Amino acid sequence: MGHALNAVLQDILSRWKRMSGYKVLWVPGTDHAGIATQNVVEKQLAAEGLNRHELGRDAFVERVWKWKAEYGGRIIHQLKRLGASCDWSRERFTLDEGLSKAVREVFVRLYEEGLIYKDNRLINWCPRCHTALSDLEVEHEELEGKLTYIKYPLSDGSGKHITVATTRPETMLGDAAVSVNPGDDRYQELIGRILNLPLTERQIPVISDPAVDPSFGTGAVKVTPAHDFNDEAMAKRQNPPLPFITVIGDDGLMTQTTGERYAGLDRYECRKLVLKDLKELHLIEKEEAHTHAIGHCYRCKTITEPLMTPQWYVNVQSMAKDAIRIVKEGKIRIIPKTWENTYFAWMEDIKDWCVSRQIWWGHRIPVWYCKEMRNEKCRMRNGINVSREAPRECRHCGSVTLVQEEDVLDTWFSSALWPFSTLGWPDYTEDLRMFYPTSVLVTGFDIIFFWVARMVMMGLKFMGDEPFRDVYIHALVRDIRGQKMSKSKGNVVDPLIMIDRYGTDAFRFTLAAFAAQGRDVKFSEDRVEGYRHFVNKLWNAARFIMMNIEQASHSGPLTKDGLTLSLPGKWILSRLAATAEEMDIAMKEYRFNDAANSIYQFVWHEFCDWYIEMAKIEFPDPDFKEGTKWCLLSTLDALLKLLHPFMPFVTEEIWQKIKPLKDGVTDRDSGNDKSIMVSEYPRVLPRNNKAEEDMLCVADVITGIRTIRGELNILPSLKLNALIKTHSPTVENILKENVHYIKSLARVDRIEIGGDVRKPEGSATSIKSSVEIFVPLKGVLNIAAEIDRLKKEKAKIDASLVSLGKKLFNDDFLQKAPREIIEKEKAKYDELITMRDKINESIKMLREAEVKNGS
Ligand SMILES: [Zn+2]
Ligand SMILES: [Zn+2]
Questions:
Q1: 3-state secondary structure of 483
Q2: Which residues fall inside 5 Å of ion ligand 2, going by CB?
Q3: Which of 588, 669, 704, 751 has the fewest CB atoms within 10 Å, i.e. is most exposed?
């Protein structure tokens, strides 16, 4: 659903701009999703009793390509079903030859500048995926754990000990020291003393370091440089540095270093055994419940392990500074603006980017190691050759024994180049000149750092220009209760199923109509169904218009010149202008929901509810016939275009059907009538305020009479009489000129309009801003009997309210009943209250009629 929302918003922007006369390029494509894809294929292999190592690198990669061919097309297929108007001839994939060339070019240039380097330090490691992860690929989750207080005896045989508190007892096997804060009075005399590390044969010193928090645990902490980022830093600060003792391997199992008893155990099994052994030695002082953040692999959710391994890093410090500046200067706008702070906070604290991954599916790092290292020059560089193409010999010593780096690059390394690599870079192509920098990036907040920030850095670095001007960050799609969609909750919605059931247009419109800035989309199938009604409404309106225009005599091209327009005609054109203007402003500000709601209101509540109804009355009038036809067709034509970016399919279908009818109707058409998607988007035209005000008077009277009918339950077939009192001669004139609309739409027989109109005996009243409306009820209904009937109805409702109230205000029910039931009952209660209010209104209206009657 997130992808669907993303694609729909991009398509709305693309279609809108394309129709507005811009040259629009939307490049479709996918990344190779290294770790995720490799995981899927590894799972398939596991089901066949195989693993990738048995298969070998080449065969494995070939297998992933096969999987990609089969399933990789799904995203593209979904995009097409959504109606995404991409340039399919330019479809790209991050492992394409062209994009791979860009990846190697960037790697080599960064290396030559000294911005890519190899280092052996702690990184986040996923023991299941068997690869390094960047900081961003580790998700931290608060988990309930235990803080264990362990006694480390002094080696002097004094029987004294120092107690340390730890959440990971198994790592004690790799401890290199115990550390205290240098200012902590409790431990002054212990600094420099030697401890016996329990469960091992080793001895470790007590050291001091200002980073130790005296208020945590006992104020003394164990130091495990090879398995903790803070301890790594502490170990490097010591003179001489503390040793790094690796006790957990890259598979999450205890290493040989831990000795026979523990080696080979899973890290969590080992924890249990270590605790058991310590207990037997009476070395556990106590255990406390403790909640702390634990890192998980973002792909497979396995708990990550800090591990000492050689990896490739990109020094991003200066690139990050440029990327911050460009947003601060406003050259890149992040919308909604609140996300800018998130962007700045991360960029200001950015760490070097670990870009190597120990998997096979991806861009193999363009590094070749010289196996001979024949001279000092080669040895100084550790035999490293970095090259755009596979070198034939070592550039340092001439040896031909070269072996390529096994690791591949982080997928985001290639995705970071997307804005220019897809346009042909490193070649200076026509596309690159024409379309770089791009105008807008639409994306989810979850990849602001993974993707957006890195594209900004790489774009500035290699193109000298920002990759895009606007970044629109869209919200999450949640379920109707606001819960995140997840398989475990069973509330996941498949966009393709929605499309099958309700059509792409209704589905797209739902997403757009709820895509308010800074608010998550609460999605429900009911809403899609609602918008399908809207599609039907539009379809029926169009069919009515086509039928009537085909039947009307049609002589030559229909142009606005010399046509007489009725008040409703002038009004609907003005409302159309207002709608176009509202949408224009909303679209420019990425307020998709406001634009969608404007056109929805216009089509349903102005064009269909009012204008088409009034046009039906106008048709027999020869003075209006041609004008009405012109108005109907040109308004339909324009509203289809306004709606097209949101509902591309139904608008195209109707537009093609009305094309033969509207020769010359749309005098501002550019003549490009192959498809609505390349027709000219409606310009914002001036409004007609007089027509809007006049129409409001007429509509006020019609709705006033309709309200009386509704509240008093008067049959629609029963014709009424009406008296309209107004002191404004202008209003009087407008109403008199347009009295036929009132008679027809409010089903009124005789009507009297004027300043000296008096309220007849026994009549219902409706008061509007400029008029008073009286409807005589004599002969229409028996007021006394009607009041009686309403009272009885009210009594029934009151009784239901009492019994329902007993339930709803009962704590027992509220606590025990399922939420759905409570919500249903509450809704029922509210509905009854509304009904009762309505009846009270009706009774009041009847009583007023009765009192004036004098009876
Ligand atoms: Zn993993
Ligand atoms: Zn060499």
A1: coil
A2: 370, 378, 394, 396-397, 399
A3: 588
